[in-house]
């Protein structure tokens, strides 16, 4: 019976202050039909205490505490047979007889003991405490005994190591169950309860600190209790504990490290600098033997193994700190070498955080900065601005040993992340520019050009770009490839599309990674969309979109170019819903970080609203674009916004106002097109012809507009075959799918357009033009909304509302619409407010009632 003095005599006493752990006892009790349960864990993990607490609730227990003497199989089996015989109060005749004979193996002893135990009808638990100390021959003979045990007999063992090879084989016949070391770790709740039993109360912050330092290690928590009782200030005690106080250090030296082979001890010392113990890093630090030594350390529970196989092992926190202390104080040069090797291993695995930490500890800040720059470009390509900002924060902490080159590199990382703090570091480095090595001078000019372009100072950006190239920028480096992308964008903003196309084509041909190819295709698609090569732009944007989708990431700033291209193409094809979706998505990814990108997208959104007949909305977008214009010093961008104002004035019939604004347009080629529009609006064919002479014909867009204005002028002059020329123009425009210009640029010829839509046109294109002619501003498949509701819900909100009726969650809706999840949440709140509902279900129900879905 539980509590019988004779039974309990061999079971160790529990500590005077003991915390019952029902969850651990239940784990030991689970699967009683399995004849061997092995409780494993680090030294001091509480294995013996847990099993002793469990054993005190069992009816009949034979407990054997093993020590070095039991390593001998002869001694071990005599002890087992004697202890079991005492608990059964009988002599185990067959086993005793087998032990009295000379032998070379103990297979027969195990079989004989199994025969003796067949007579046992009441439950018997045999506890072997410390099974890791015995000989491999004992493990082999135990593997013979366990499968032969009757249902009434069960063996429970404790071990610092995992099961030996012989015992592991028992798993295949369902005769072994191993309790993971994580079962014994104290939770933070259990730590708090144990402290309360010792009359110790800690704040939540101090308790969390203790939990982090102890890592659930039972003996460690006991050492912490002693320190807390000695020290009046818990913070002091916990700091001493985290730094490994003398008592804990002695325990590690005397109870852990002294009992393991020297090679394994050196392995633990050298790898103590590592945060995680994956095989590649261990081999990098300790040589080819590192893989097997790591396996030995894991099997001996000398390192912590997170549950499951998802994460690699790591050092026990306190033991790792102790080993690092010994390495740092005993052999500081070796500690530096280990950190240097660890930095190289982390960099090779793209673990930038780890590389920075180790290089810094090794005093090699230059390598830390080099590693961040190496990976920052790639992560920028994936739109990981938050990651870049975090790396920048790591580098900023190295300020104590700064060099101007570090300031330049940090500025580049911040620029790639879209942070305005970059200019601070460039200013710090500028006085030393003549003292910098050549590659650092090149990077300085690159950083200055990036900063100027992102803030809208295109003139300064191009000047710095010229200085960078004059200094010998190595254009095969990922950083300078990204820089060339910025150059391509700047050429677009300067209206030099040929130069922009040349830059992107060169980059695309030399792309070395999938991310690079997607980035280059995205920018090239945008350049083509601006130039009016709608078909090629669509193809390149689709390829870039597929690459980013395959990367399975959230929409990021890296996707902004191809999304803007899709939006521009959709706008020109008068697919207004699609245009809005992608232009807004692009804007969400760049607004507040890249002013020039935002400005050009805002202009496109103003054109979109105007095409939809939403005049007030168009002017609101235009006002936002003008608000960003103060950051720009290029005539092209100023003319872009100013030209839009003139076109809006013409759309509203304000010809005099439009004419008065013409002198504000600085670039003659752009002013020529606007003068032609004003002249045609006035019916002045002569002035229109004068302007047509100066209009450029470099791009498909420019050639199409020139042809349209020529036809309008010809019509004003009373020329013949206007309808035939219009039909030819429509056929030519159908190749790329142009629709919007026929809606906006040829008002007086709208009446002739239906006759130009012959059967030779692609059916989709003909339908799109027919919708323009009929005045329909929305896709033919869109529902006709009740006027009062339709006015309240914007097209974006209608699109979100449509997806709310699906099974998509908010994150999936954001990815579908290529916007941030915060934008989706804002739209949903607006929908709820406008429909007078408070939930998604209500919104869908009301929308169906109003026939919005």
At a glance:
By secondary structure, this protein is mainly α. The protein has 5 domains: 5-184, P-loop containing nucleotide triphosphate hydrolases (Rossmann fold), CATH 3.40.50; 189-366, no CATH class; 416-589 and 597-605, Serine Threonine Protein Phosphatase 5, Tetratricopeptide repeat, CATH 1.25.40.10; 615-774; 787-849, Orthogonal Bundle (Arc Repressor Mutant, subunit A), CATH 1.10.10.10. Helix content is 64%, strand content 4%.
Topology:
Blueprint: H1 5-8, H2 22-29, E1 36-40, H3 47-55, E2 61-65, H4 73-88, H5 93-99, H6 107-117, E3 124-129, H7 136-145, E4 153-159, H8 165-168, E5 176-179, H9 188-197, H10 204-214, H11 218-230, H12 234-242, H13 246-256, H14 262-270, H15 279-286, H16 290-299, E6 303-304, E7 314-315, H17 317-330, H18 332-348, H19 352-361, H20 365-381, H21 385-396, H22 404-416, H23 422-429, H24 438-455, H25 458-470, H26 478-493, H27 497-509, H28 514-531, H29 534-550, H30 560-572, H31 576-590, H32 595-611, H33 615-629, H34 635-651, H35 655-661, H36 668-682, H37 685-694, H38 700-716, H39 722-734, H40 740-744, H41 753-756, H42 763-774, H43 787-792, H44 795-804, H45 810-817, H46 821-835, H47 840-849
Parallel strand pairs: 1-4, 1-5, 2-3, 3-4
Antiparallel strand pairs: 6-7
Pfam family, one: WHD_MalT
Keywords: DNA-binding, Transcription, Transcription regulation
GO molecular function: DNA binding
């Amino acid at each position: 019976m539980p509590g019988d003095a004779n039974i309990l005599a061999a079971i160790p006493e529990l500590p005077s202050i003991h915390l019952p752990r029902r969850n651990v006892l239940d784990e030991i009790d689970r699967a009683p039909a399995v004849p061997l349960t092995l409780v494993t864990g680090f030294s001091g993990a509480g294995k013996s205490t847990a099993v002793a607490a469990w054993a005190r609730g069992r009816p009949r227990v034979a407990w054997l505490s093993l020590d070095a003497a039991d390593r001998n199989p002869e001694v071990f089996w005599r002890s087992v047979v004697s202890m079991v015989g005492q608990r059964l109060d009988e002599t185990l005749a067959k086993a005793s007889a087998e032990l009295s004979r000379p032998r070379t193996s103990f297979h027969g002893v195990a079989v004989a003991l199994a025969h003796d135990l067949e007579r046992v009808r009441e439950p018997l638990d045999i506890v072997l405490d410390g099974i890791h100390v015995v000989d491999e021959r004992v493990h082999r003979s135990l593997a013979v005994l366990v499968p032969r045990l009757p249902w009434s007999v069960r063996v429970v063992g404790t071990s610092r190591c995992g099961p030996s090879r012989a015992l592991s084989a028992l798993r295949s016949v369902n005769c072994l169950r191993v309790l993971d070391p994580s079962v014994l770790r104290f939770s933070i709740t259990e730590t708090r309860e144990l402290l309360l039993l010792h009359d110790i109360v800690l704040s939540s912050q101090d308790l969390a600190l203790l939990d982090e330092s102890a890592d659930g290690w039972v003996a460690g928590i006991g050492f912490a209790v002693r320190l807390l009782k000695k020290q009046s200030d818990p913070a002091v005690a916990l700091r001493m504990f985290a730094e490994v106080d003398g008592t804990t250090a002695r325990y590690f030296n005397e109870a852990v490290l002294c009992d393991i082979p020297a090679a394994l001890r050196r392995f633990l010392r050298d790898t103590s600098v590592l945060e995680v113990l994956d095989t590649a890093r261990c081999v990098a630090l300790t040589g080819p033997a590192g893989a097997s030594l790591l396996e030995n350390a894991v099997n001996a529970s000398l390192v912590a193994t997170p549950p499951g196989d998802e994460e690699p092992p790591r050092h026990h926190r306190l033991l790792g700190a102790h080993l690092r202390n010994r390495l740092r104080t005993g052999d500081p040069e070796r500690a530096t070498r280990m950190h240097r090797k660890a930095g190289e291993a982390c960099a090779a695995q793209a673990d930038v955080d780890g590389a920075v930490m180790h290089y810094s500890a090794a005093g090699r800040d230059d390598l830390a900065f080099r590693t961040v720059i190496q990976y920052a470009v790639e992560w920028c390509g994936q739109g990981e601005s938050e990651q870049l900002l975090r790396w920048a924060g790591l580098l900023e902490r190295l300020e104590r040993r700064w060099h101007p080159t570090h300031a330049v590199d940090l500025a580049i990382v911040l620029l790639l992340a879209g942070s305005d703090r970059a200019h601070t570091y460039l200013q710090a480095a500028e006085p030393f520019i003549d003292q910098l090595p050549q590659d650092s001078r090149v990077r300085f000019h690159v950083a200055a050009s990036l900063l100027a372009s992102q803030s809208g100072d295109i003139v300064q950006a191009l000047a710095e770009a010229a200085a960078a190239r004059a200094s010998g920028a190595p254009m095969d480096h990922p950083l300078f490839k990204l820089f060339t992308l910025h150059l391509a964008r700047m050429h677009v903003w300067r209206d030099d599309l040929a130069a922009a196309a040349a830059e992107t084509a060169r980059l695309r041909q030399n792309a070395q990674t999938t991310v690079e190819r997607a980035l280059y295709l995205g920018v090239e698609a945008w350049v083509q969309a601006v130039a009016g090569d709608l078909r090629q732009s669509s193809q390149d944007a689709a390829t870039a979109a597929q690459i980013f989708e395959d990367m399975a990431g959230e929409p990021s700033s890296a996707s902004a170019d191809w999304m803007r291209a899709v939006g521009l193409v959709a706008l020109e094809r008068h697919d207004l819903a699609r245009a809005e979706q992608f232009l807004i998505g692009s804007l969400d990814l760049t607004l507040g970080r890249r002013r020039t990108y935002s400005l050009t997208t805002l202009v496109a959104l103003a054109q979109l609203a105007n095409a939809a007949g939403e005049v007030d909305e168009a002017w609101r977008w235009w006002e936002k674009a003008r608000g960003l214009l103060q950051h720009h010093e290029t005539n092209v961008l100023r003319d872009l916004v100013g030209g839009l104002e003139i076109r809006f004035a013409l759309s509203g019939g304000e010809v005099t106002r439009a004419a008065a604004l013409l002198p504000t347009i600085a670039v003659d080629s752009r002013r020529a097109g606007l003068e032609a529009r004003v002249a045609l609006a006035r019916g002045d064919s002569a002035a229109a012809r004068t302007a047509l002479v100066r209009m450029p014909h470099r791009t498909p867009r420019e050639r199409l507009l020139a042809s349209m204005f020529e036809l309008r002028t010809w019509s004003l002059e009373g020329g013949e075959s206007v309808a035939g020329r219009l039909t030819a123009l429509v056929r030519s425009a159908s190749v790329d799918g142009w629709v919007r210009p026929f809606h906006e640029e040829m008002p007086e010829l709208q009446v002739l357009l239906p006759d130009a839509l012959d059967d030779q046109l692609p059916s989709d294109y003909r339908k799109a033009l027919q919708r323009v002619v009929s005045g329909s501003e929305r896709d033919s498949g869109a529902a006709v909304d009740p006027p009062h509701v339709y006015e309240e819900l914007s097209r974006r909100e209608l699109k979100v509302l449509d997806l709310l009726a699906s099974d998509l969650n908010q994150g999936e809706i954001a990815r579908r619409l290529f916007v941030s999840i915060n934008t989706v949440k804002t739209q949903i709140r607006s929908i709820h407010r406008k429909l007078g509902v408070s939930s998604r279900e209500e919104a869908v129900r009301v929308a169906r009632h109003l026939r919005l879905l």
